[in-house]
Amino acid sequence: MTKTAIVKKPDGTISFELNLSRETIATTYDQVLREVAKTTSIKGFRPGKAPLPMVEGASDKSQLYSHVLEHLLSPAYSAVIHEHQLVPLIEPKVTPKQMEIGKDWTLSVEVATSPVVELGAYKQYVKKALTKLKKDSKQDDKLNLIFDALLSGSKLEVSPLLIEEETKSALSRLAKQLSELKLSVAEYAKSMKKTTDELISDYNKSAEANLKLEFILQKLIEVEKPPFTGTELATLKPTKEQEPYTKYILQKRKVLDFLSAL
């Protein structure tokens, strides 16, 4: 079986095409039509007993084919993900390229995965950054120096798909908070002496920086492999489902403690 060709960029964006044969589409269309027929009422027939051609005629074909795509997309996408052992971080962006009825369908798929991270001489540049720390500085000041040094000294690009998703989430949280104050995002932007586009641009830059920092810290954990004890983990009392993330948080703290001590 020929592998599906994929294109992977250093920023972690992976793109590929999904091809669905017209035979598979036709079979699935028939299945969808039979499902729809079970709940379709047509005059002169008991519910679910109308002939399929009449059900088809009474249905919105675009909706039928939309259901066909829903049936076929997930397994086809999952097959490629398993085939190449990919670890998507968000839902895929799917763009139809060819979806003419009676022909094979072609869909363009983009998905975001973790980017390539080059840390560089991180011990040296973090240590140098910490020399700027003043005697009366707080822990947050130290962490900000470390974060700025890591962002400046590391090399990586983040998938635009991830940045867009993170920006949308942040703006959605902002809109929810503002709605409680009976303010719109546009009104909030104006109060900050910004246009809405400028505010969105700020959130976009912030999302990119936050994502970069998270990937840098993940890479540092991979390199430094900071140990932790079972007692430290138990102190946080994670559930079984929370345990992997709690371990990650512990290791991230250890890495930051290590960098702070340089």
Write up what this structure looks like.
- This protein is of the alpha+beta class.
- It has two domains: 6-112, Trigger factor ribosome-binding domain (Alpha-Beta Plaits); 122-222, no CATH class.
- Helices cover 58% and strands 10% of the residues.
- The protein has helices at 22-37, 52-58, 61-83, 122-130, 139-153, 160-180, 185-191, 196-224, 230-235, 243-260, and strands at 6-8, 13-20, 93-98, 105-112.
- The chain has a four-stranded antiparallel beta sheet with strand order 1-2-4-3.
- Strand 3 (93-98) and strand 4 (105-112) form a beta hairpin.
- Helix 1 packs across helix 3.
- The longest helix is centred in the last third of the chain and has 29 residues, at 196-224.
- The chain is elongated and about 85 Å long.
- The N and C termini lie far apart (52 Å).
- The mean pLDDT is 93.
User: Biggest sheet, in brief?
Assistant: 4 strands, antiparallel
CATH superfamily of the largest domain: Trigger factor ribosome-binding domain
**What structural category do the secondary elements indicate?**
alpha+beta
Give the termini distance in whole angstroms.
52 Å
Number of strands: 4
**SSE arrangement, N to C:** EEHHHEEHHHHHHH
CATH architecture of the largest domain: 2-Layer Sandwich
In percent, how much strand structure appears in the residues?
Answer: 5-15%
Domain module tally: 2
Name the poorly predicted regions: none
Q: Helix fraction?
A: 55-70%
Question: What is the overall shape?
Answer: elongated
**Cα-based radius of gyration, to the nearest Å:** 26 Å
CATH class of the largest domain: Alpha Beta
Count of individual helical segments: 10
Q: Can you tell me the CATH topology of the largest domain?
A: Alpha-Beta Plaits
Give the rounded overall mean pLDDT. Answer: 93
Question: Main sheet: which strands, in order across?
Answer: 1-2-4-3
